[in-house]
Amino acid sequence: MEELIVIVNTDVEKNRLWSKENPSINVIKQMGLSIKRSRRHKSGFKYSSYFYIPIGQIFLLKKLKADVVFSAEMGLRTLFVILFAIFNKSCSVIIHFDGSIYTEIDNLFIRALRVFMIKQASKILVNGEDGKKYIIGLYPQAASKIDKIHYSCDNFKTHINKEDWDPKSPKFIYIGSLSERKGIYNFLEHLYRYSMQSDRSFVISIIGEEADFKHADLKKFATEKIKISFYGFRQSLEIEEILSHQDVCVVPSIADSWSLVVNESLSLGVPVLGSNRSQAVSELINQNNGWIFDPYSYESLERCLNNIVNISDREMGQLKTNCQLSVKMIDNSEIYKSYLSMFKRTVK
């Protein structure tokens, strides 16, 4: 690869900061318009939808003489990339679909537009099986174009969490915005119900900014049996320190294209209690490193909680070891090899 150029339309999220000073990466912030809309998802939660209109994108790609364009949106920006490639036959397009069957709420126009883009693309990259199902649902003939590459992280040190295990009062942690989509309210509601019906207590740490819910909305679930601590927004190094002292990481998302906190938790030896609507949970979690539940079913979560509070010290120790082992094959070096292989198979 002679040069990697990254074209962005928005500023980098403050909780996923990365340096633009890397001499091997040329970062260009493209001009454009952004339209924000509040919408209601088919699963019932509210969310903000962003529609980006890039300005001069085709001319910029022509100026850069791109051989391979990797487009991670499947919206108007990807459409312009496809149009550029149609008139520049030496250019290959890789579309990264950063979504799943649970995240999308297509109308007929969006589906038709995406089918057109999928047909023109050289490769389609998805995060996992739920993403693959969505693409094949749109255009079954795309199956041969699809590559599956997971998200990875290596900013956390990989080690075993050696905290003492107390099944009578497990230490849970939730990391994410306090939004409907992330499912924290429903989870606490179910946890409250479980605690009232059992003799178990829980300690839960909540890291993340207020969104659809405020701290006051969630404090009503705090009782003698459920101790809740709010940390607000924290940078990665602070999260690593807090997370490394927990027993279980909770990922109750109603719809998530991935959930990077799953990778981060496993790397720290913290088992994951996760929703089957998070693609990271579906891809990485099994009975050896965590528990999977349906966020809409109390009975599903109840079964998982029963398993958790009845785990022995030896079993918890093995779970922590399994967590570390399960992320070794998806660290950045392995993911890099997968990307490099995909690019080599795509260049015309």
Please provide a brief summary of the model.
The chain is an alpha/beta fold and 348 residues long. The protein has 12 helices and 14 strands. The model has no long low-confidence stretch (mean pLDDT 88).
Question: What can you see in these coordinates?
Answer:
- The chain is of the alpha/beta class.
- It has helices spanning 57-64, 76-86, 108-120, 129-138, 184-197, 215-219, 236-243, 260-267, 279-284, 298-309, 313-326, 332-346, and strands at 4-8, 25-29, 32-40, 46-54, 68-71, 92-97, 123-126, 146-148, 171-175, 202-207, 226-232, 248-251, 272-275, 290-293.
- A six-stranded parallel β-sheet has the order 11-10-9-12-13-14, with helices on both faces.
- Helix 1 crosses helix 2 (76-86).
- The relative contact order is 0.12.
Question: Which SSEs are present, and which pair or pack?
Answer:
Blueprint: E1 4-8, E2 25-29, E3 32-40, E4 46-54, H1 57-64, E5 68-71, H2 76-86, E6 92-97, H3 108-120, E7 123-126, H4 129-138, E8 146-148, E9 171-175, H5 184-197, E10 202-207, H6 215-219, E11 226-232, H7 236-243, E12 248-251, H8 260-267, E13 272-275, H9 279-284, E14 290-293, H10 298-309, H11 313-326, H12 332-346
Parallel strand pairs: 1-2, 5-6, 6-7, 7-8, 9-10, 9-12, 10-11, 12-13, 13-14
Antiparallel strand pairs: 3-4
Helix pairs in contact: 1-2
Core attributes:
Rossmann fold; 14 strands
